[in-house]
């Protein structure tokens, strides 16, 4: 394997990601990011801006398509591959080991699907790999590594805040005498200033909106419920599925083997790898966490596995690739044809509820858009309490439907649109409200002069009803604040 062949491999896999990105339907979160990219701002309520900004040039080039929305994720996965090669060289490997690691990553549903799924995680992981490469350079005595680390950290912060978990990777270098001597020179502090400047957009948005974005990350997203093992068990189970049990065990074994006699470069790599999953495992002792939040651990762990001989490595890789391939194929099949599973009625009630009935939300969306377009009147807004539904209607109608989120008190995610429209632009408007709630009028009657329920939109497959969407026509919005906007009078449209 040569660098040229490795580059060709990266391009071939990026082409595969692009094909899948173009063919598969967008999820609710993905169309949420798309709608955010139509309302450019310094940052957003629950997400930093980098991935959203990155969609804009691709939308200009490719139009309002799934490929344009997912192009930043494809670019991020390509950057992971590009960063792996110099990272491997720092640790004694080369193109062969980088190829090995990148292919192993594609055997995991976590990376294979994440390589073309529009998310903030993909960009954060790329930044984490780049920052780890730079941290190893610092540990090996290269002063310019401070600048690479700062740039990766600052840009990564604009992708997703947990990139700061790469900071402990600097500890092995700073615990040595040579590393501490670096703190008497200006490079670390100037680099730190660069990282801080790069994060400026997040703080500008925070200053304009009473630090709502920071409060959400620190308190709104994580509501502690005391010590509990349930979310931790779910976090472990999710990682076993996303990485496959075989590859997860192999990575853990390789990490443990490398601990013995690790030099400062390897110590840096080991700390950077372990920190994300260890941190979120601790958080899971008090509240639920996303199963994919430990993603940087497994991406860096694949590099460790590629550089570490293990007696069971060949078996784990083959078994992991087979298992991961089957799981990925199953996920793609469910996305493309969810109807057969809707009759099973399976559900799991833990700290995170999972049910097959949730698949009904991906069935018949084109039919739903057509039905809503047929009913909406001139000048009428379309709203839903589901941010996925609100933004999906906007995307699938190519912006023809003027949609709004109806925020209910129990909702905490997907609220960026509450900062786009001032109260004066909403007051007095009529709204066609679509929902799949059992009590569709809850919270609406005190906000509108009149609310009337109409015939529902029924989506069938053969003789079976797979989805029922209730429709209400609400006239004269009297009190838009909080439910439809968090802006104050006179703020102007964002």
Helix content: 40-55%
Ends apart, CA distance between termini: 51 Å
Number of strands: 7
What is the count of helical runs? 20
What is the H/E string?
Answer: HHHHHHHHHHHHHHHHHHEEHEHEEEE
Q: Detail the poorly predicted runs.
A: none
| Average of the residue pLDDT scores | 91
Radius of gyration: 24 Å
How many structural domains?
Answer: 2
Largest sheet, strands/sense/barrel = 5 strands, mixed
- Derived structural class: alpha/beta
The strand line-up of the biggest sheet is 4-3-5-7-6
Give the overall silhouette: globular
Tell me the strand percentage band.
5-15%
Summarize this structure briefly:
With 494 residues, this protein is of the alpha/beta class. 54% of the residues lie in helices and 9% in strands.
Structural descriptors:
5-stranded mixed sheet, two-stranded antiparallel sheet, alpha/beta, single chain, 494 residues
Folded structure, characterized:
The longest helix has 25 residues. The protein is 54% helix and 9% strand. With 494 residues, the protein is an alpha/beta fold. Strands 4-3-5-7-6 form a five-stranded mixed sheet, covered by helices on one side. The chain has a two-stranded antiparallel sheet with strand order 1-2. It folds into two domains: 329 residues, no CATH class; 117 residues, no CATH class. The model has no long low-confidence stretch (mean pLDDT 91). The protein has 20 helices and seven strands. The termini are far apart.
């Amino acid at each position: 394997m040569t660098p040229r062949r490795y580059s060709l491999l990266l391009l071939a896999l990026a082409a595969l990601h692009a094909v899948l990105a173009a063919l598969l339907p967008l999820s609710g979160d993905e169309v949420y990011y798309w709608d955010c990219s139509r309302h450019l701002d310094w940052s957003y309520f629950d997400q930093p801006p980098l991935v959203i900004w990155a969609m804009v040039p691709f939308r200009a080039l490719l139009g309002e398509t799934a490929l344009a929305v997912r192009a930043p994720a494809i670019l991020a996965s390509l950057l992971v591959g590009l960063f792996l090669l110099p990272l491997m060289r720092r640790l004694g490997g080369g193109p062969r080991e980088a190829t090995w690691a990148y292919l192993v990553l594609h055997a995991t549903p976590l990376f294979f699907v994440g390589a073309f799924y529009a998310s903030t995680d993909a960009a954060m992981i790329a930044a984490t790999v780049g920052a780890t490469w730079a941290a190893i350079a610092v540990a090996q005595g290269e002063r310019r590594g401070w600048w690479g680390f700062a740039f990766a950290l600052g840009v990564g912060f604009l992708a997703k805040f947990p990139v700061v978990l790469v900071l402990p990777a600097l500890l092995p270098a700073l615990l040595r005498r040579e590393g501490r001597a670096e703190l008497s020179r200006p490079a670390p502090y100037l680099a730190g200033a660069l990282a801080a400047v790069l994060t400026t957009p997040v703080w500008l948005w925070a200053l304009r909106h009473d630090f709502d974005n920071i409060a959400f990350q620190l308190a709104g997203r994580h509501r502690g419920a005391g010590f509990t093992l349930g979310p931790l068990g779910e976090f472990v189970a999710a990682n076993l599925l996303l990485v496959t049990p075989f590859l997860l065990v192999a990575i853990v074994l390789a990490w443990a083997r490398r601990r013995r006699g690790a030099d400062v470069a390897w110590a840096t790599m080991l700390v950077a790898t372990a920190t994300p999953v260890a941190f979120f495992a601790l958080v899971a002792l008090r509240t639920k966490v996303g199963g994919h939040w430990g993603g940087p651990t497994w991406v860096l762990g694949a590099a460790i596995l590629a550089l570490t001989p293990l007696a069971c490595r060949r078996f784990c890789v083959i078994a992991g690739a087979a298992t991961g391939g089957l799981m990925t194929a199953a996920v793609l099949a469910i996305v493309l044809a969810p109807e057969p599973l809707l009759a099973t009625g399976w559900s799991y009630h833990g700290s995170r509820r999972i049910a097959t009935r949730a698949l009904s939300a991906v069935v018949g969306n084109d039919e739903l858009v057509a039905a809503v377009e047929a009913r909406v009147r001139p000048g009428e807004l379309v709203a839903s309490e589901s941010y996925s539904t609100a933004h999906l209607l906007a995307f699938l109608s190519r912006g023809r439907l003027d949609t709004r989120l109806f925020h209910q008190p129990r909702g905490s995610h997907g609220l960026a649109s509450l900062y786009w429209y001032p109260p004066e632009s909403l007051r007095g408007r009529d709204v066609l409200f679509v929902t799949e709630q059992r009590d569709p009028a809850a919270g609406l009657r005190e906000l509108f002069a009149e609310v009337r329920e109409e015939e529902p939109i029924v989506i069938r497959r053969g003789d079976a009803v797979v989805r029922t969407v209730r429709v209400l026509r609400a006239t004269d919005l009297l009190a838009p604040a909080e439910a439809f906007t968090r802006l104050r009078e006179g703020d102007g449209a964002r």
